[in-house]
Design a protein that fits this description.
Blueprint lengths: L1 H4 L2 H20 L6 H11 L1 E13 L5 E4 L4 E9 H10 L3 E5 L6 E6 L1 E3 L6 E5 L2 E18 L11 E2 L3 E3 L2 E7 H4 L4 E4 L11 E10 L9 E3 L2 E6 L1 E2 L1 E12 L5 E6 L4 E6 L1 H6 L3 E7 L7 E6 H5 L5 E3 L2 E10 H8 L8 H36 L1
Parallel strand pairs: 1-4, 8-12, 17-20
Antiparallel strand pairs: 1-3, 2-8, 3-7, 4-6, 5-8, 8-11, 9-16, 10-15, 11-14, 12-13, 13-15, 17-19, 18-23, 19-22, 21-23
Keywords: Signal
InterPro entries: c-di-AMP_regulator (IPR053154), YbbR (IPR012505)
Protein name: Cell surface protein
């Protein structure tokens, strides 16, 4: 046995066995090679993804105005999963239309790509687009304002409107520029608005039929300010009684002497410095108080007032007292007036008797002189 172990053949055989074991250990997949295997499998899995990509133009856009093409198109790519994911995230390729050699007019052009990895397959939707190539033109237009005045609260009016900037630059095909009838902003005022409108509003280029013209506006919005207010004026009030008062008269009193009236300019201009406020006393008694609604009392002369109502105290004054105070001759005579009349009549009678007696005496004297 010792001879066998110590022989060269034994060591040669042992070396061969070790070499074979190492060979099979390395070539056989184990736990340490699991990750490499997974990575290899991942790189061979295919994936499909669809996403939107901006469409670029290859053309002299300073000279020509081009319409009809979409801003973005959809592209579907398919290939190794990692490569598809990277392509979708980075979008490091281009989709474009080559228009350099095309003349003015309409053309059907194929969308092309540049920069996609050769390991990927792709499809573009749409594949073709129809573009319209026209000579480019630029003009400036003043901005008009168009709004509904019926949205204003009753009695309110607008002042001088402001637009900033007052003009915009319009760029487009010469044929489209020629269609423009006006450039306008159409602010939408809230119903019943009472305060100044102050907002950014979209600008529109319209033809004579009111339809939008296909052009580019710079800026696309402008600042619009529409002052909204109501006119007012301070006036004094005159309380006037109305209604059937029989034989009674009344005095009307109120702590409110002046009010402020509001309305349109034409309404305020037509109002004097004082206004009559009628007070119905047909069913009133001495000392009654009534609240008079000024809007009802003034009718459509104004829109509203401040205050909106006044409190009126009604005091009764008898007609006899009023007649005596004013010396109305139709109101009848008092007792003192009757006594004075009697005294005057008596005095007149005495004077008449004295005149008769004197006449008799004078007659007697005349007879004596005759004898």
């Amino acid at each position: 046995m010792k001879k066998i172990i110590n022989s060269n053949y034994f060591y040669a055989f042992l070396s061969l066995c070790c070499a074979l074991w190492l060979f099979f250990f390395v070539s056989t997949p184990g736990a340490g090679s699991t990750r490499d295997t997974n990575q290899s499998n991942t790189s061979t899995v295919t994936k499909k993804a669809t996403f939107s990509v901006p469409l670029q133009l290859q053309a002299d856009v300073d000279k020509y105005y081009i319409t009809g093409y979409p801003e973005k198109v959809k592209v579907t790519v398919e290939g190794p999963s990692a490569l598809v994911t990277a392509t979708r995230n980075t979008q490091n390729f281009n989709l474009y239309l080559n228009l350099r050699d095309l003349s003015i007019g309409q053309h059907r052009v194929q969308i092309r790509e540049n920069g996609l990895n050769s390991e990927l397959t792709y499809s573009i939707k749409p594949k073709y687009v129809t573009v319209n190539i026209q000579r480019r033109e630029t003009k400036k237009f003043a901005v008009d304002i168009d709004y509904n005045k019926e949205s204003l609260a009753t009695g309110y009016e607008t002042g001088t409107t402001e637009v900033s900037p007052e003009t915009v630059t319009v760029t487009g095909a010469a044929s489209e520029i020629n269609k423009i009838n006006k450039v306008v902003v159409k602010p939408i005022l809230p119903k019943g608005i009472k305060s100044t409108f102050d907002q950014e509003v979209l600008v529109q280029a319209l033809d004579k039929n009111g339809k939008t013209v296909n052009v580019t506006l710079d800026p696309q919005t402008v600042h619009v300010k529409i002052p909204i207010s109501i006119q007012s004026k301070q006036v004094s009030i005159n309380l006037k009684q109305k209604g059937n008062t029989s034989d009674n008269s009344f005095t009307l009193e109120s702590d409110v002497k002046n009010i402020r009236v509001y309305g349109t300019k034409s309404q305020i201009d037509a109002i004097d410095d004082s206004v009559d406020v009628p007070v119905d006393v047909s069913d009133a008694s001495d000392g009654d108080k009534k609240t008079i609604d000024l809007s009802d009392a003034l009718g459509n002369k104004v829109t509203f007032t401040d205050p909106s109502s006044v409190s009126v105290t009604i005091n009764q004054t008898s007609s006899n007292t009023l007649s005596s105070t004013t010396g109305n001759p139709t109101s009848g005579t008092t007792s003192s007036d009757s006594s004075s009349s009697s005294k005057s009549s008596s005095s007149d009678s005495t004077d008449s008797d004295n005149d008769s007696s004197s006449s008799s005496t004078n007659s007697t004297n005349d007879n004596n002189d005759s004898e």
